[in-house]
Design a protein that fits this description.
- The chain is mostly helical and 529 residues long.
- The chain is globular, with a radius of gyration of 25 Å.
- The N and C termini lie far apart (80 Å).
- It is found in: Cell membrane.
- Its main location: membrane.
Length: 529
């Protein structure tokens, strides 16, 4: 009897949550029940499918390219909200342990950031896969393929990321030794990363669900889902864990997992019960993978390589600094926690336009609307560059002020004032480079994009090993590897963009000639009659 009452309570709470999250579904469901009877339900399903397909296309073509691009940024914008959420969490941790001289919380953020970010970027890889392929299938009128592909994404991500963390766990201690983490922090650092590692599949599922909403043109649902998860994390779970329960550092990273599990327990059943325009079912999870799915995994590789590009050089630089300035190892780790937070903002802010461009551009490319594709491309570059130019001077000129929000000792502020500005000198070049990367993905050249991302990783990795040998008396000069890499990548992307641009230019001319021929034939036909 008690279990039945609990089940009823859960059902009521779930329905109430669904009604708040998706009011349109309840309106549509009530209209459906009033209009459908048993005799014409089959014909209605066929009409509903056609209407859904038309509605999906209409979301991408109803407005101008700029308006569509901005509408579609609502979903990716939530990635920036998540970064802000992580920043607020780190600030709360800083406040919680500010007066505790024995706490190593901020040091753990510096030494373990790469491990924590692994789960987030793994989720972004599948986010990019689903936002690239599903709109493309919609543009090609392959609605059934889009549906099965969605189920494939959930199944494939679960199979991989339910096994991967176990192998990843055994690499923790060697990694901590490599970056110069003091031995007395090993156990605390391992406990600090347990939740992000073994909850990795939850983070992947969450980002995949965000991408699903964006792929079907429901950017509002995508934004709402992200906001609710972030509010739960930063405003409920984290404060309760830190200030009410006064948990140890072992539980600091658990709030993100708790918040996302709460949201997914509501949305995943809705998706697989067919409550949206793309209607995957549980049966699709045991069907063979679509032939496009293995190839689509290449689309996610640039994200993973980008993560390596973001993670590997700071790891090598951190190792160089902690080994050359041993007496300041903990202070350097704390400064790197702030550097990683700023890097996330600088990468995440322009990316909101490029994730939107991938979604909109994929539909335009699938329907061969190349003029609209290039319009998306131009607006994405312009908007992202304007955003970057707004906050780049602040980071370069007032880095000590920004670092002072999280750090408190004079040693940490002094190191931050030297280290933080250098990587952001050429930040204004990154929007153009990221736009080219997104363009290569949209036109079905993920290997080109992966090559450019690999070049970025190689430049940063090799440079981080060469510069310390050149500037032996000033180990902080190793941070100059970032501006040098931006200049090299500008040339690499310029070369890689030439062949696809020439091909698309030829296709545009052929389309124009075909349309002119059609007009001439129609005019002759009309003249006869």
């Amino acid at each position: 009897m008690i279990s039945q009452n609990h089940s009823k309570l859960f059902y009521i709470l779930q329905k109430f949550s669904i009604k708040i999250l998706f009011p349109e579904y309840f309106f549509e469901a009530s209209m459906d029940s009033a209009l459908i009877d048993e005799n014409n339900s089959q014909s209605y399903d066929s009409m509903a499918t056609q209407c859904n397909q038309h509605s999906e296309l209409d979301r991408f073509t109803k407005y101008s390219p700029l308006t569509t691009l901005l509408i579609m940024t609502i979903g990716p914008l939530m990635n920036l909200v998540q970064i802000t959420c992580e920043t607020v969490d780190m600030l709360q941790v800083s406040i919680r342990y500010k007066n505790d001289p024995t706490s190593n919380a901020m040091n753990l953020y510096g030494f373990c950031n790469v491990i924590v970010q692994t789960s987030i970027y793994a989720g972004l890889a599948f986010f990019q896969i689903i936002t690239c392929y599903v709109p493309k299938f919609i543009g090609e009128r392959r609605h059934d393929t889009a549906t099965q592909f969605t189920a494939d994404c959930y199944r494939g991500s679960f199979l991989f990321f339910s096994i991967f963390p176990f192998g990843f766990y055994f690499a923790l201690k060697p990694f901590l030794k490599f970056v110069g983490c003091p031995p007395e922090l090993f156990q605390e650092a391992i406990e600090f990363t347990l939740w992000p590692i073994f909850g990795m599949f939850v983070v992947v599922f969450f980002n995949l669900t965000i991408g699903f909403f964006l792929a079907i043109g429901q950017s509002g649902y995508s934004a709402m889902t992200r906001i609710l998860a972030n509010v739960l994390q930063s405003c409920i779970y984290t404060p309760v864990l830190l200030f009410a329960i006064k948990c140890t550092t072992k539980w600091i990273r658990s709030s993100m997992i708790f918040s996302q599990v709460t949201i997914l327990s509501i949305i995943i059943p809705l998706i697989f019960c067919g409550k949206f325009s793309i209607k995957p079912t549980l049966r699709m999870l045991i069907r063979p993978f679509t032939k496009e799915f293995p190839k689509s995994l290449l689309t996610g590789f640039p994200v993973l390589i980008t993560f390596i590009c973001i993670a590997l050089p700071p790891t090598l630089i951190l190792k160089q600094l902690t080994t050359s300035v041993v007496d300041k190892a903990k202070e350097i780790a704390s400064v790197f926690a702030v550097f990683n937070r700023l890097s996330s903002y600088c990468a995440g802010t322009p990316q909101i336009f490029f994730y939107s461009f991938i979604t909109c551009g994929s539909e335009a490319y699938g329907s061969k609307n190349y003029k609209r594709l290039f319009s998306y491309f131009g607006w994405a570059i312009l908007l992202s560059t304007c955003v970057v130019l707004c906050f780049e001077p602040l980071i370069v000129l007032k880095s000590d002020v920004i670092a002072g929000i999280f750090l408190y000792t004079d040693k940490e502020i002094e190191i931050a004032k030297i280290l933080l500005p250098i990587p952001f000198y050429t930040l204004f070049l990154q929007p153009l480079e990221n736009a080219c990367n997104a363009f290569l993905i949209v036109i079905g050249k993920p290997l080109y994009a992966m090559f450019c991302s690999t070049m970025q990783m190689l430049c940063l990795t090799v440079g981080s090993q060469i510069l310390p040998k050149i500037f032996k008396e000033d180990p902080y000069k190793v941070m100059s590897v970032y501006p040098l890499t931006d200049l090299i990548l500008l040339v690499v992307y310029g070369v890689m963009m030439i062949p696809p641009l020439i091909r698309i230019r030829r296709e545009m001319k052929n389309i124009d000639l075909l349309s002119m021929s059609t007009v001439n034939i129609n005019s002759k036909y009309e003249s006869v009659f």
